[in-house]
UniProtKB/TrEMBL annotation:
Coiled coil regions, renumbered to chain: none
Organism superkingdom: Bacteria
GO molecular function, one term: DNA binding
Keyword rRNA processing: no
Key word DNA-binding present: yes
Protein name: DNA-binding transcriptional ArsR family regulator
Pfam families named among the record's database cross-references: HTH_20 (PF12840)
Residues of the HTH arsR-type domain: 1-91
InterPro entries for this protein: ArsR-like_HTH, HTH_ArsR_DNA-bd_dom, WH-like_DNA-bd_sf, WH_DNA-bd_sf
Gene3D superfamilies recorded: Winged helix-like DNA-binding domain superfamily/Winged helix DNA-binding domain
Keywords: DNA-binding
Organism of origin: Paractinoplanes abujensis
Length: 113
């Protein structure tokens, strides 16, 4: 999984590739339709699509003369699972710090109601 997730993070490091995924999250698109949304050449968009496909974030299918790009949610889910383990770790540490700080608080004195 480490090699796989490395490729996913490398692919997601580029803002254009993230924007392509944002667009594909709304529905399938051809490379030409995707290229129309960016101020870069169609070749540059094609290179970004190759990186996304190699990372397993998209698949391309052929339908007659058109090649459709589709997002693959499974790889995005792998990133979410990776991040989730760290969210849980930090939540546990925050709870332990909260408990420790609670024990440092002075208890009620006899004068207090």
């Amino acid at each position: 999984m480490t090699e796989s997730i490395d490729g996913v993070f490398a692919a997601l490091a580029d803002p254009t590739r993230r924007a392509i995924l944002d667009r594909l999250a709304t529905g399938d698109a051809t490379a030409g339709e995707l290229a129309a949304n960016f101020p870069i050449s169609a070749q540059a968009v094609s290179k970004h699509l190759n990186v996304l496909e190699a990372a397993g974030l998209i698949v391309r299918t052929r339908e007659a003369q058109r090649r459709w790009c589709r997002i693959v949610p499974g790889q995005v889910q792998a990133v979410a699972q990776w991040a989730e383990q760290y969210r849980r770790l930090w939540e546990q540490r925050y709870d332990a710090l909260d408990d420790y700080l609670g024990r440092l608080q002075p208890g009620p004195t006899k004068e207090e109601p």
